[in-house]
Amino acid sequence: MRNFAAELEARRAQGLYRERKQTQSPQRPSMQVDGQPLLNFCSNDYLGLASNPHAVAALIEALPSHGIGGGASHLICGHHQSHHALEERLARFTGRDSALFFSTGYMANVGVISALVGKGDTVFSDELNHASIIDGCRLSGARICRFAHSDMSMLEQHLAETSGHKMVVTDGVFSMDGDLAKLGELSRLCRKHDALLLVDDAHGLGVIGRGGRGSVDHFGLDQDDVPLLIGTLGKAFGTAGAFVAGPQLLIDYLVQKARTYIYTTSMPPALAEVTRQTIDTVEKDESRRTHLHTLVDRFRRRAQALGYQVMPSDTPIQPLLIGDAARAMAMSAALEARGIWVSAIRPPTVPPGQSRLRVTFSAAHTHEHLNQLLDALQEIRSDITTESGEQAVGSA
Q: With bands split at pLDDT 50, 70 and 90, how would you rate the model's confidence at 14?
């Protein structure tokens, strides 16, 4: 029998063992975590809507008339009018013909990719794409061609050498690095080589683009340039679920073929009802994005001045590259001891030697919150050293 205990011990020894922390409060900057107060800098609640009082009140109001559970799959009796209204709202928000609501972002990527490519087809995937994209590619049965991160020359060579049905899949904002895909170039290559382009903009929607319309809008592109757009609602929108938006023909096709849509119970309809209201907030409240980007700019300047290796990102995802997994864990623990919650990201989520502190910002953070984070980073840079004691952990 496989020695599972030994594998777990090996992960502990390598600094790769994962543990869950229990939160005892809503998602917000100041939280109770394992019974201790912590200032949260690891949430994807980019606009501070996850515990927005207006959204909470709207959910309470919707529950008596909408119930709690979906009851069944969308194709049995679980497709509520609120789900349908949300899909129509998402289509308008993204400037697309139609949209399809999924229960999670993982299910959206796996379902869409495995429905649109299969045996005999080829799917091209950026090497830093999210795990849900990677799994969708694997489960599709299609030939997988991974290209180096944002390497358009490599991708074009692979596209030119490949015949048959082709699809290119990429994150819009890469979740661990925080940088943006080269969507303009990707769109041009897909047109040139007759490939379908799918963008997962989980970390871009709500944060960048006009009215928070994401990375596709940020680059001045539309449905003709990026036919299929996937987004999640549990990050900047503050609720839960996900969607794919695109041409009516492809959305109709996915209703017939996407197994993760067909064979799962629908999300609570009351939650779909509230999400339509949070989309309105995302679209109209530009002050949240302005404040968020001000925090990000200030953090980057100050962190670099402290000697940290800040990665090239202008989004709320601000990784500090550490390198060694054990060092990253030690830094995360030292920050926690100072009341700051920042996750250490280690392999296999990131490549070996690229462990990091993944700092994320929310519009709910204040400049005082940022000051507390920067003060703690300054302290631990002096206190935590390498084994030789010659260089502070986190230095460039």
A: confident
**Residues annotated as catalytic (active site), given as ranges:** 175, 203, 235
Q: Outline which parts of the chain fall under CATH 3.90.1150.10.
A: 20-47+286-383
CATH 3.90.1150.10 assigned to domain 20-47+286-383? The reply is yes
Helix 367-383, helix 325-337: angle, nearest 10: 120
293 in Cβ contact with 269 (< 8 Å)? no
Q: Among 94, 241, 103, 240, which Cα is nearest to 172's?
A: 94
Helix 131-140 crosses helix 105-116 at what angle (to 10 degrees)?
30
Percent over 70 (pLDDT), the chain: 96
Q: Please say whether the dihedral angle defined by the alpha carbons of residues 124, 130, 136 and 139, taken in this order, is positive or negative.
A: positive
* 135 SS3 class: helix
- What's the pLDDT at 396? 36
- Closest Cα to residue 281, out of 45, 82, 104, 109? 45
| Tens-place pLDDT, residues 218-262 | 999 999 999 999 999 999 999 999 999 999 999 999 999 999 999
Nearest to 229 by CA among 108, 137, 338: 108
Where do the CATH 3.40.640.10 domains begin and end in the chain? Answer: 53-284
| Closest by CA position to 269, among listed 91, 63, 126 | 63
| DSSP H stretches of helix in the chain | 4-13, 53-66, 81-94, 105-116, 131-140, 152-160, 183-192, 214-218, 248-257, 259-262, 269-284, 286-305, 325-337, 367-383
Q: Is the peptide bond before 348 cis (omega within 30 degrees of 0)?
A: yes
Residues 43 and 142: their CA atoms lie apart, in Å, by 34
Domain 53-284, CATH class in plain words:
alpha beta
Q: 153: how many CB neighbours lie within 10 A of its CB?
A: 10
pTM of the predicted model, to two decimals? Answer: 0.93
Q: Could you tell me the CA-to-CA distances from 328 to 158, 319, 325, 353 in Å, in that order? A: 36, 11, 5, 11
